[in-house]
């Protein structure tokens, strides 16, 4: 099943290039959500128990909109946290160590020497919102990444249980200002966490660690790899992250980027594709 958020606060099931509005199934009493707001994303949390009803809506031939006609929001609207893996493909570690503008005097070794980072939730954007780099004259790079979305709360999750905690997958762009500052700061400007085009539920992805993916900029291939080359694969990342903090439904793990990172400029068109997850097309404002 493919789930999108669209048109400002609507929830949809994507089927045959159409969007079925299922907002009322998630929020039968309207959008008067509880407060304090639950940790995590309510749509992702409710997904397992509502799946049959979502499928019924698609079967029923209900009213729909063309996928192209809606404004897609981020695949997860309100993740509790967006977790990043900084150095998780060896060729990217090599290119980072070879480029002073990326490493700024650091020597990258292994992911478990550096740990993970968090991107601010306010950096979230859907693919129909242009990436805004206009506030800085610094180098800003693209990073295409497979993103795993947590579906079931857990702490200290074992490697063998990890996939049971994943609701689904989506494409991410971990946009990054290069510089000396901590990654949490450089990777958190508004629109620097693009998630799209939609969340693909885990049952549709046989093996998240065997997905071809690529990113083009203005039609030219910049990054191309397969998730089998992840240093920490999806299970290991869930295990590693959850030994530090509880993972909640809707939390996003951006799994890291392969080689080929490079600066973007105003007007660039970025098209990211991951096998089974569709195509995320966006532009730099
Ligand atoms: Mn990254």
Structure description:
It is a single chain. With 285 residues, the chain is α+β, with helices and mostly antiparallel strands. The protein has 2 domains: 68 residues, no CATH class; 202 residues, Fumarylacetoacetase-like, C-terminal domain (Fumarylacetoacetate hydrolase, domain 2), CATH 3.90.850. It contains 7 helices and 17 strands. Strands 1, 2, 3, 4, 5, 6, 7, 9, 10, 12 and 15 form an 11-stranded mixed β-sheet that branches. It has a 4-stranded antiparallel β-sheet with strand order 14-13-16-17, with no helix packed on it. A two-stranded antiparallel ribbon has the order 8-11. Strand 1 and strand 2 form a beta hairpin. The model has no long low-confidence stretch (mean pLDDT 95). Bound molecules: manganese (II) ion.
Summarize the entry for a quick read.
With 285 residues, the chain is an alpha+beta fold.
Q: What portion of residues belong to β-strands?
A: 25-35%
Spatial shape: globular
Total domain modules: 2
Largest sheet: 11 strands, mixed
Radius of gyration: 18 Å
**What proportion of the residues is helical, as a percent range?**
10-25%
Instruction: Give the end-to-end Cα distance, rounded to a whole number of Å.
Output: 31 Å
Mean pLDDT: 95
CATH topology of the largest domain: Fumarylacetoacetate hydrolase, domain 2
In CATH terms, the superfamily of the largest domain is Fumarylacetoacetase-like, C-terminal domain
- Please name the CATH architecture of the largest domain: Alpha-Beta Complex
Counted by DSSP, the helix tally is 7
Bound molecules: manganese (II) ion
CATH class of the largest domain: Alpha Beta
Alpha-beta content class? alpha+beta
């Amino acid at each position: 099943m493919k789930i999108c958020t669209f048109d400002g606060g609507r929830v949809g099931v994507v089927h045959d290039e159409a969007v079925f509005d299922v907002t009322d199934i998630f929020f039968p009493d309207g959008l008067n959500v509880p407060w304090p707001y639950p940790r995590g994303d309510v749509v992702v949390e409710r997904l397992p128990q509502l799946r049959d009803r979502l499928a019924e809506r698609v079967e029923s031939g209900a009213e729909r909109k063309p996928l192209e006609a809606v404004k897609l929001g981020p695949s997860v609207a309100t993740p509790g946290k967006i977790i990043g893996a900084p150095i998780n493909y060896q060729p990217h570690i090599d290119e980072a160590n070879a480029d002073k503008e990326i490493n700024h005097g650091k020597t990258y070794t292994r992911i478990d020497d550096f740990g993970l980072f968090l991107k601010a939730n306010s950096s979230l954007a859907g693919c129909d919102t242009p990436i805004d780099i206009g506030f800085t004259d610094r180098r800003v790079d693209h990073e295409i990444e497979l993103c795993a979305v947590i579906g079931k709360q857990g702490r200290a999750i074992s490697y063998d249980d990890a996939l049971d905690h994943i609701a689904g997958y989506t494409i991410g762009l971990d946009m990054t200002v290069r510089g000396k500052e901590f990654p949490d700061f450089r990777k958190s400007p508004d629109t620097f966490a693009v998630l799209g085009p939609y969340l693909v539920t885990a049952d549709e992805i046989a093996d998240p660690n065997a997905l071809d993916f690529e990113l083009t900029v203005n039609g030219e291939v910049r990054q191309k790899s397969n998730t089998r080359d992840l240093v920490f694969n999806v299970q290991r990342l869930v295990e590693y992250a959850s030994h530090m903090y509880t993972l909640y439904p809707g939390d996003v793990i951006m799994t890291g980027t392969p080689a080929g990172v490079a600066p973007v400029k105003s007007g660039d068109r970025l098209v990211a594709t991951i096998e089974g997850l569709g195509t995320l097309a966006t532009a730099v404002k």
